[in-house]
Design a protein that fits this description.
This protein has 296 residues and is mainly α. It is 68% helix and 0% strand. The two termini are 54 Å apart. Belongs to the EXO70 family.
């Protein structure tokens, strides 16, 4: 596409000179052909954009990327549309219609939905770029389902949508066309994936830090079953070690995002653990008997 756009722009710049140099009747065919070539270049650019959208939607790779990292398709597509934004002025003139697919409630499960009414006021080019991001997410969501671990599937979506958000933020032209409203929607999807990843990972671990099932009789402070408490900590330790063993091979390429995840997990796990210990007045007396995992 970009070579064709370069040719289009070069020929467009030469059009006034072509009119002057080939103004004679004998050169009339050249003067006539130049606009026709310009039109065919414009049509080729539109066709390539449509083919690219279909290719993103139908990209067939099903093997999950190791560790839930950023998929090569995500990098390629976002780099491609960042380059498209560099040709903004030319493409705004050439792209005159909205994407031909994506009508909401179409009933086609192989195509995502997009409400064009929400994008009122945007240029057809901007709508095409948003549509490309929509179908990229749709494809990625399908790929995420090939992970056997649900938490890893959410991590994969978190990594990839975060990458999309960062690429949009990093390109002023692309951000202007996408718009802050859609950027906020993308950011919301990334945060939802991050929340789902943490919930899928830590809900079962945190469930161990509950009082239910530890009572023998009477008040909690005087009626804690040593055997029940021992089993509770044994389960907690095993789950914590399993999470560490499994997720040690998972990837979060963005340094800032990785640190935010660590902080978020610490803010959930450590206070819950300390609160659990604080509700057990007898814990210090039992520490030698019970394998208590030191958290935080």
């Amino acid at each position: 596409m970009f070579k064709i756009l370069d040719l289009h722009d070069a020929l467009m710049d030469l059009m006034p000179d072509i009119e002057v140099v080939f103004e004679s009747k004998s050169a009339d065919s050249i003067r006539v052909q130049a606009p026709e070539i310009l039109s065919r270049l414009a049509e080729a650019a539109r066709g390539i954009l449509s083919e690219f959208e279909n290719a993103v939607l139908r990209e067939p790779s099903l093997v999950p990327v190791p560790g839930g990292t950023i998929h090569p398709l995500t990098r390629y597509v976002m780099n491609y549309i960042s380059l498209i934004s560099d040709y903004k002025q030319t493409l705004i003139e050439l792209i005159l219609s909205k994407p031909s697919t994506g009508s909401r409630y179409s009933g086609d499960s192989t195509t995502p939905d997009m409400e064009f009414a929400e994008l009122e006021g945007k240029t057809p080019l901007a709508i095409h770029l948003i549509w490309i991001i929509v179908i990229l997410q749709f494809n990625l969501d399908g790929k995420s389902k090939h992970y056997k671990d649900v938490s890893l599937a959410h991590l994969f979506m978190m990594n990839n949508v975060h990458y999309i958000v960062q690429k949009v933020k990093g390109s002023p032209e692309l951000r202007e066309m996408i718009g802050d409203n859609y950027l906020r929607k993308l950011t919301g999807k990334f945060r939802q994936a991050a929340t789902s990843h943490q919930r899928a990972t830590w809900v079962r671990v945190l469930y161990c830090l509950r009082d239910e099932g530890l009572h023998v009789s009477g008040s909690f402070s005087s009626g804690v079953s040593k055997s029940a408490l021992r089993e509770r900590f044994k389960t907690f330790n095993a789950m914590l070690e399993e999470v560490h063993r499994t997720q040690a091979t998972w990837l979060v390429p963005d340094n800032q995002l990785r640190e935010e995840l660590r902080i978020s997990i610490s803010e959930k796990l450590i206070p819950a653990y300390r609160s659990f210990l604080g509700r057990l007045p007898c814990i210090s007396a039992l520490e030698e008997e019970i394998p208590v995992k030191k958290v935080g």
